[in-house]
Every structure is written in structure tokens, then in C-alpha cells.
Amino acid sequence: MTKTLVIAEKPSVAQDIVRALTPVAGKFEKHDDHFENDRYVVTSAVGHLVEIQAPEEFDVKRGKWSFAHLPVIPPYFDLKPVDKTKTRLNAVVKQAKRKDVTELINACDAGREGELIFRLIEQYAGGSKPDGKGLGKPVKRLWLQSMTPQAIRDGFDALRTEQQMAGLAHAARSRSEADWLVGINGTRAMTAFNSRDGGFFLTTVGRVQTPTLSLVVEREEKIRKFISRDYWEIHATFGAQAGEYPAKWFDPKWKKSEDVEARADRVWSAAEAQSIANAVRGKQATVTEESKPTTQASPLLFDLTSLQREANGKFGFSAKTTLALAQSLYERHKALTYPRTDSRALPEDYLPVAKQTFEMLADSGMRHLAPHALTALNNNYVRPSKRIFDNSKVSDHFAIIPTLQAPSGLSEAEQKLYDLVVRRFMAVFFPSAEYTVTTRISTVAPHSFKTEGKVLVKPGWLAIYGKEAADEVEGGKEGDKGQNLVPVKPGEMVNTVAVDPKGLKTKPPARYSEATLLGAMESAGKQIDDEELRSAMQEKGLGTPATRAATIEGLLTEKYMLREGREIIPTAKAFQLMTLLRGLGVEELSRADLTGEWEFKLSQMEKGLLSREDFMAGIAAMTERMVKKAKEYDRDTIPGDYATLESPCPNCGGVVKENYRRFACVGKPGAEGCGFSFGKSPAGRTFETAEANALLRDKKIGPLEGFRSKAGWPFTSEIVIKYDDEAHNYKLEFDFGDDKKGEESGEIVEFEDASLGACPICGSDVHEHGSNYVCSKAVPTAAQPTPSCTFKSGKIILQQPVEREQMQKLLATGKTDLLDKFVSMRTRRAFKAHLAWDKEAGKVNFEFAPSKFPPRPGAAAKTIAAKAGKTSAAAKKAAKPAATKKAPATKTAAAKAPRKPAAGKAPSAALAAVIGAEPVARPEAVKKMWEYIKAHNLQDPKDKRTIVADDKLRAVFGKDSAGMFELAGILGNHLGAE
Predict the structure, then answer these.
(1) Contact 748, 769 (CB under 8 A)
(2) 231 has catalytic annotation
(3) Among 1, 68, 706, 829, fewest CB within 10 Å belongs to which?
């Protein structure tokens, strides 16, 4: 009997599909990696299981960071498993290759990325053929808008064909390959360019990431170049028989000009403003008035980008957070429709579902929402409207709206987002808000003063927002709008009660928040406020609604941008990249509108209006141009808008100016520079202008994070400027705060901070000293010139800053809180741990929190073998399932028993002083050794691959230093026999 394999994107979705199909297809049996009944086998990926790579013959093993092997444009792409999910991939492929499986259903997320996940798995299962062909089995597509059981069953009744999905599949592959070509070649080319003078300066670029960064940099450039101008407004108060009212002077003849800051109510000199005030003070004015009704419709339904913008503005949620919450409400709670959509309309046949949704809301226990839903039903508000129901504005997905399933058990953040969507959904069906807008002109010849009043007559959809209504009314909180005006009789003359010029300053454009940056990405940087025009520009935006949050997070992770409150600010690294791209003329990466054109072409491909071959040929040509411009650039510097530092040259007192690569002395006025300069990006970290100023002023700065060694290892260090006797000038150096030089010189240390607590070794006070926390008896002091204690712990350990409060806690209680910013030297992955005092080792060590998850049965068996008879009761308990569930597992464990001691060897006394006395395998010994080296800052600052031995390591190395590649061999000599 043949079966159909259903591949979902996540295990939770696979379970939802099984639950939905059980009533119509029969009960499923659960296996380790799949569910199965007589008709279906249901399994799942866990996101991307396969990624593209250059074929072996085109892959550069050595010298990939040089121009010699660029550009890399392979004629086709190979596939490779994602390391972390190989086991899951093998399980899915095993099911796909079954002989009784004759058809596949792609049930991954209904979008470009979901299409790519499935297509690459299917291609990999078929042998990763260059033509992209997979197993050759028929494929159908499950396209879901909602995750309710009925919606899933409806989706299975309306599966899409391979032909219907061809355009989306081509666009998915093309997007992936284009990002690889531009990202790999661009990053390698710009890194090669920036590393030409030595060192390694990783410079990442991306097809969407870098143009997005250009928007933020261009805005910051406008802010920095902005020159504020003084202007004046003339505010008056007029008195009528019924009372007083405010007004503001304006020029009725004013027209827009080239001066973008000019307004009808601004004058540019204090004298003119005072002259107007003096001319009208104490005079009577004639009044003309016009009142007219106006309406304001509710905003359109949410797509993902508008939801992210609204949530950022209202709650401060990042785009990433909003997407995660919306995805949880869609997948886990089944409360919202598919969130990764760019549509703000519903299908024209969706009116009955909309009515059912209102009925669900009216009957729900949500008291803050139910009355409004009931109002809509009682007044027949839910009816056809082209503004809401429009097939021409619905692509693969429609707007985000609530499903027919009332949620329960939502977190506070989920409830906030759900309410936001529900209120917007109800609001679009409610009548427009109605106002009376009154414009009153008070004239004291020849000067005119305007007063505007906007009175809400019928709240309409604003009733749903209650007290929030004032925020929704455009201009509703501006002092001279939204007010009730006192009446003026026809022909009545009013008195000028008061008139005052008000001095103000023009303001620079605001920095981007995530909300405004998402809007700018949507329109590729074009400032569009009109919602209809914005939707027309969406196809030429940067990225897609589903990828924009990840793009912003990527730029923040790469330290191209920083978050300060809700503002997004570009770093010096970002300015340097934009200067480089502009100087090289790589417009495709420095102009957002050009990248918007590429996104438009992808959407054309989805619709079958552009071939994949034409698109990829264009991307390849762009890649070649980009690499060629970087490779052939032969001038000494890149033209740009560079800073002049406030701090003088430490050598001659001259002016220090920035160029593309360095900060250099250009001398005092009328004199030449003295030759002093220092690199802008030592070890791949770019100085901010303020940091460069501080470095010159104080001769030191730090410790600073974000440096990388030539081998790519991240490190933290202070930077100092020291006088070089040979060069007769100052030079920049890394200072790792080892403080040994001070100890060796016998220089007396004076502590300026309060004691942090008692030293765990000798009980003396612990203080801050350089880059460390030290015992007061571990350094020369006036009270004790000869150190007698060894306690020292770094202020930054494996990239984790250790604040004073945490060191106080360690000294008081024995360990810190759980810290979450450690980065492993071996795997480069972040990890969490406590710092704890290890009395036996006589140093601060890591203490890991117990795992939330019990060990797997197999892992438990391995643990038993490794412990060599030292099995704890807990380990035995964890191992029981392995012993009782499957006999073969018991045999395997028994068979391995004689080899138990092989798991660890006893370290020599010298090595035990460093890593502890417990038996360890060599890899574990190397790992512990690296933790010791990093914690004690023992890497040579000039060559991070060299370890400078302290007293304990000298006993292990047998010499003063050792190379990082010697470690394994040295440790092997110190690990005893089995």
C-alpha cells in the first residue's frame, strides 16, 4: 500500500497536522521522528536542514581572504547538511526514500523561505543533483493561512500543484544563491581591501543588509551636518464676548520654496517678530470663520511590517520580538492567521468568516473587546467593502487577523499583540470617525492669525480605542487643534489681549527607530506617508516582511548599529563601510533603491514574469563589477567626509585628522605633520571619533570589546599610546592589564576604590586594579611593598564583563549570579555560567547551572562507562530506561564496560595545579587549559597564538612560552597511563 509523506517545517506543526487529519484519515502511530497511519507519514524539519555551498572544485581552501581567488561564481551549487541538525535531516531523508512513499507534500511555512527549506531537503534526498532535481516523486503543496484544525483539513482538500509553485521555488533558490554570491564575494573583497596594510579586518556585507545600513548612515549624516537655525512664531490671545481663544500669526501669501524649513507661520528674525507683535498689541481684530465636517477612516488591516511598526511605537517591541510573538500566536495558540504576510486586505469570499470571527469575539470572555464586537454585529457593520475585501491586493497570504479560536493562557506580551490585531480588525469595519473642523482667521490689518479647532462629533472606530483615541486622532494633542473654540458673533470685533514672539530652533531629522526603519525598508528609503502609495512600493522594498527583522538584528550583532533607547545609531564601523563602498563606486550595495529593484525582480519571478536565468546573470554581473572595483582601486585613500580630532597630537601638539585608514598628525598651522598616526581599526575594531579623542587625551582607553586576532578569535583589551624611543614618536599598543610589569618594577599601588570584600585566600581587602580585581596583598602597596597573595580575577572573562556588584557577590557568597555573555574560545558559542571560588584549585572557576533536560538514555549509558564505577544514584536512575526499554542497549553498555578507564588519564602534579586533579581525556585537558589561559590573560598581545607562561604553566611547558598548536602535545606528556 502506497503512502504520502508530509514534511512540515517544525515538529509542532507536524503534530498540529496529525491532530487535524486524525478525524478524517484515521489514527496515527507515533515513532521517534515521524507519525504514520495507513495513508500518511508525517515528519518535520527544524528550520533549515540543508544549506548551499560552492562545489569542491570551486571552493577556496587557502587564501580566501585575498583578491587572488575572487570572484567565486560557481556554475551550480552543492548542498551540505547543517551541522546541528544532521540527525533530523537523515531521519527525514530516510522517510522520503521509502519505497512505499510515492508522493510528497510540502507542508513547510507558506512563503519563500518555507519553499526553500523543502526544496533543498528534497534535492539532497535525491542525491544533490546540480540540476536541482530531487527524488523524482510527485510533489504537492499545502498552503495554510491559519493553523486551526479545520483550516488544515481545508488545505489538504485544496493542495497546490508543482506547476503552481514553480515561480515561488525559482525565486526562493535565486534569493538564496544571490545572497551567497553577494555576501561571500562582497565580504571577502572588502575584507581583503581593508586588510591590505596588514592585520585582519573582517568587513561583512550583504545584498539586503548593507543597503539597509546605508539608510541609517545617510540619516545620521544629515543629523551631523544639520545646522540649526533660529526662527520665531508670534502667538496671540484674542478676547471675544464669550471668552478668550489662542491664535498664531501666519502669512496667507506664503508658498513652498527651496528652503525646506520655511513655513507660513515662521519668521527668521527677532526684529521682524517683535515688529509684528508691536503692530497688533492692544488692537482690535476682525474675524472670519469656516466650519466643515470631515471624516477619518481607520487604518488598514495589519501586514507584518505595519504590525511590527505599531508594536514598536506602542510597546517598544523590537521587530524580532513582534515576529516571534505573532508566530507563537499563529502556531502555538492558533489565535492569529499567518503572520509573515505583505498583504493588508482579505479575499472577497471571506465575509462569512469575518462575521463568524465577530461572533466569536462577542461570545468570548474578553470583556474589553466583546462589547465592540457585539456593537458591530447589532449594527450590521460587517459588510462588503473594497477597502477590506480585495482579491487584487491579496497575494499568497492575506492580512493578519484573529482566527475563530479564542485564545487562553497568553503571556502579557502575547496578549498585548493579540489585542492590537483584534482592535485593528474590528476598527476597519466600524464607521469613520466624524469631526467638525473650524478654521478661524483673526485679522489686525495687515497681519493674520489662525486658530484651528477639531471637535470629535461621532467617535466611530475610535470608540474601540477608548482613552487611546487622542493618540489615534491626527494632530489631536497639538495645543491649537482638538479644542472647542469659544463662539464669535457675526461681525463681532475681538480684542488682542496678549501677543508674544516665541523664539525656537529648527530640528534635525529624527534618528530611525525600528518602526521608522521598517517603514523605510518597505519603501527602499523613499519617504511615503500615504498608505495606498506605500502598498504600491512594497514590491520594491528591501527584503520581505519575513526577513526584515533578521536583517536589523544582523546589523546590530555585527556592531554596525547600536540601540540607544528606541533610537538606532550607526557606529564608526558603519561609516567606514559606507565610505569604502561609495569611494569604490559600488552603488548596488550603497543605494537602497537599487536593491529594491532586485527585490521587485524576485517578486516578478514568483509570478512567472522573469526567468531565473536572467535574474542570476544580473546578480553574477553585479558581483563581478563589485570585486573588480575593489581589486583595481589603486589610490592611497578613499575620498570621504572625515573628522578632525579635538585632542592634539601627543608628540608635537599638532592637529590630528582622520583619513580612510588612520588618524594622522597634519601638524600645527603652517607646519608639517610629525609622522604620528595610528590605525582606525586595530584588530578589526573601528574607533568611534569620541574614543579616538579620549585615547589621545588620556593616553589610554578601555577595556574595549570587539577585537579579533589574525586567527579570528575575539578578544578584549585596553589600548594605550606609549612613547617609542627608537622611533622618537608615540605608538599604539594593546594592554591586556596583566599588571606584572608593575609588580616586577616594585611600583607602589594606591587603590582609589572602596573594598569589594575579603580575599578568599588571605582575608585582606580586594580592589580594582587595571583590568583585574586583586587582593591588596597581591601587589606592592605602601603597607606591604612585597606581595604575599596570589588572588586575581579579570574584569572581563571570555568576553563577559564582571561588574563590581558581581565580584562583591562572589566574595560574599562564593559565586556570582548566572552570567550569560561568556563566549567559548573553542567553539565560539555563547554560554551561561556562575563564576565561583574554587578553593581546591585556588582560583575563580566556572560553575554551570544544572541542565533543565534529563540526559538521553544513550548519553546516560556513556556517562556510566566514562565514570568507571563512580556512577551516582542519579545517573543510575537516568540510565534505567535505556536498560529496560531495549535489550541491545544493555548489551552495548555491557560490552563497553571493560574500556571504562579509557575516558580519562590522571594529570601530572604540575598539570593538576592548573586544571585540577581529576582524570581527564586530552581534549578536555586542552579545553580546561584554554579556560585557564583566557581567564589569566596569558596570550601574547602581539601574537595571540603564543601563550606566555605564568609560574604554574612554566612547570607544565618547561619553558617561558609555547605556541597554541603545541598545547595538545605538551599536555599528552603530562597525562599519565590509563
Answers:
(1) no
(2) no
(3) 1
